[in-house]
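My current task is to audit a protein record that another person submitted. Alongside the sequence sits a line of tokens, each denoting a local backbone shape. Please read both lines and tell me whether the tokens look consistent with the sequence. Do not assume that whoever made the record got everything right. Thanks in advance; the entry in question is below.
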Amino acid sequence: MSEKKGSPSDFPNIRSALPIFSERAWDALKPLLNGKKTERLPIQVKPDYGFAPYYLVNCWNVVDALDHSKSEVKYGDFKWFGLLEDRLENVHFFSVPESDDHFVSEEFVQCVEDHGLIGGKFVASREPGWKPDLYAMFPPRPAYNTKLSATTEKGQSKLQELLGYRLPEHYLTFLQKFPRSARKVERADAQLLIDTDVLLKVDDILEANDYTDSYEKWPKDFFAMGLNGSGDTYAINRRKKLSPVYLYLHGSESYYEYAPTCDDFLALRLREIEEENAELDD
């Protein structure tokens, strides 16, 4: 009887308190792993994720770099981390005394991309408004993709033709860096796994899934822009030249947020809004 295989991953998630790297991930990232301050322990991972051998990675590089004034605590745990960047020069893989979480630099993320490593998920450590650059707001999430999805010139042209105006360059960059998820999805979610090459009107989405009650409040003439890997769907209103953008969390009508401009949209972070205070302005 053959052993069940998991989705290919260099960083399998088996609910370990420590990160798990494949050998090829370790070799690629080793120059950024602080030398003797990072150690590895061989482990047997089941099911087979395709890139054995695997290692538990223990980081001894604990840096006192937490900026409490810019950190947010919720339910006794940190929701956002403010970091003192002057203490993190040439530091690419570390932890802080106050948390069990592991942190990586943008160079670390770039190295993951450059070597085609898959399965890594990177979450912004800070409130996006504190550092308005693309990686801080929307770090790349390779998920199970062999490559990050890219917006083609053809796709950009089609999108802008449909919208009736040219999108800002930084928004096109956002589309290029934001990967699609290859996870298993419900039928309703599958209709939203799109990028700028395949655009669906909200009307089409409503007809295509079995959970129309979750989407019935979407305004007409909106286009879904794709998922971020965990179910969050972005929509853009093509009725106005300066496009209002809505952020909608799949599966719950009580989670959505409005942004009046593209810049504001890029600065959004997901937070719960009470349903009665979250009325869409049609």
